[in-house]
Amino acid sequence: MEHAEFNKGLLKFLDASPTPWHAVASMKSRLDAAGFQELNERDDWALESGSGYYVIRNGSSIVAFRTGKNDVSCSGIRMVGAHTDSPCLKVKPNPELRRQGFYQLGVEVYGGVLLNPWFDRDLSLAGRVTYLDDQGEVRDTLVDFRKAVAFIPSLAIHLDREANSNRTVNAQTDLPPVMMQVPEDDTTSFHDLLRQQMSDESGVKARKVLGYELSFYDANGASFVGLRDEFIASARLDNLLSCFIGLQALLSTSGDEAALLVCNDHEEVGSVSAEGAQGPFLTAVLDRWCGAGKARAIAGSMMISADNAHGIHPNYMDKHDENHGPLLNQGPVIKINHNQRYATNSRSAAVYRHISDELGLPHQSFVVRSDMGCGSTIGPLTAGNLGVTTLDIGVPQFGMHSIREMIGAEDSLTLFRVLTEFMQRKKIF
């Protein structure tokens, strides 16, 4: 089946991308292979018509674009946006804990984590390390232990008889993972462990570890699930799924029209950062690409913010509006909120519906229950910063913000097909 072949690439991407830095590195590798040129923000740019480029900021956010063959101020830009980060547990700066002979690490909760599923899982560790090399230069490298190195054990039900009815998680005291057993006189520092991992993994010889941004993650890889393999289960589907689909769409376009993919870090914590959607990254790239014609280009452009949606859970159907419960494998979901938690309007929704209908592909709509709060995406932030017409859409999923999430296997290919057509469409409006 065609979607099965497409999803095999998705599963490889998910497994290779345990952190935003790894996700961007994976995307960089695919862009390089497709002939895109990397741009450095410190350099002068000499962009050529009909060419592909990308810019990376902080190693965790990326903007990739095709310049197209026409004047961008007249043609506009077909934009797709996603985010590289996911809720997780991050290692604290001074993390070592030694208790009862166990070596543990203190962790900080990043984003709106669903904490209970993190217990009793095989956990690995990955991220970016900043270090001093033998020449006295400050450098960065990526690390990924790629095996189960930690575990957060639950307290036995015999010692907590109300665990199934009244369990709460204290993020400070309940979450430090167990990594190994050590003797009482052990003085091994976490920096020592990192230096050893850097040497073993990539041959990096660090004189000193100066800092790191490391996250625990589920050591079990992405997989097909279901009697007929109709689902995909993985960590970080929110929102590496959209990063992968957006990238594959950009790589599959003809290149005739101006098209752009932005994948921002820090969406899960509000997007306020140098590389977040509420920061200046995308605007800076567009300023240098479009120049004096930027305002005209934006007026003729459209952004599709792709971020997963809440599929209707068969065990909790009352959590959805009765007319807006998206089903897995029934198409991507147009997300609507008139209080501007989503940026969709009737015009941007119409563009997506029209393309999807032309291709004979399904689509759905989601509106949160009127008595519940609504989440948000990079869509409203990007729309507000740029003044660009924006649509919020996403593949429906279960278990959002859990350590492991689930989507329908057919929906990823459906969104890819529509985004590919959108990104190479001669006329947007």
Quickly list its features.
2 domains, 27% helix, 11 helices, protease, hydrolase, alpha/beta, globular, aminopeptidase, 429 residues, Aminopeptidase, nine-stranded mixed sheet, single chain, Peptidase_M18, Aminopeptidase i, Domain 2, six-stranded antiparallel sheet
SSE blueprint:
Elements: H1 2-15, H2 20-33, E1 37-39, E2 52-57, E3 61-66, H3 72-75, E4 78-83, E5 88-99, E6 102-110, E7 123-132, E8 138-144, H4 163-166, E9 178-181, H5 190-202, E10 208-218, E11 223-225, E12 231-234, H6 237-252, E13 259-264, H7 281-290, H8 294-299, E14 302-306, E15 309-310, E16 333-335, H9 346-358, E17 364-366, H10 378-386, E18 389-394, E19 396-398, E20 405-408, H11 411-423
Parallel strand pairs: 1-2, 4-13, 4-14, 14-18, 15-19, 16-17
Antiparallel strand pairs: 2-3, 3-13, 5-6, 5-10, 6-9, 7-8, 7-10, 11-12, 12-20, 16-18, 19-20
Helix pairs in contact: 6-11
Tell me about this structure.
With 429 residues, the protein is α/β, with parallel strands linked by helices. It folds into 2 domains: 2-86 and 235-423, Zn peptidases (Aminopeptidase, 3-Layer(aba) Sandwich), CATH 3.40.630.10; 88-218, Aminopeptidase i, Domain 2 (Roll), CATH 2.30.250.10. It has 11 helices and 20 strands. The strands form 3 sheets. The protein has a 9-stranded mixed sheet, sandwiched between helices. A 6-stranded antiparallel sheet has the order 8-7-10-5-6-9, with helices on both faces. β16 (333-335), α9 (346-358) and β17 (364-366) form a beta-alpha-beta unit. The longest helix has 16 residues, at 237-252. The protein is globular and about 70 Å long. The mean pLDDT is 95. It is an enzyme of class 3 (hydrolase). InterPro entries: Peptidase_M18, Peptidase_M18_dom2. Belongs to the peptidase M18 family. It holds the Pfam family Peptidase_M18.
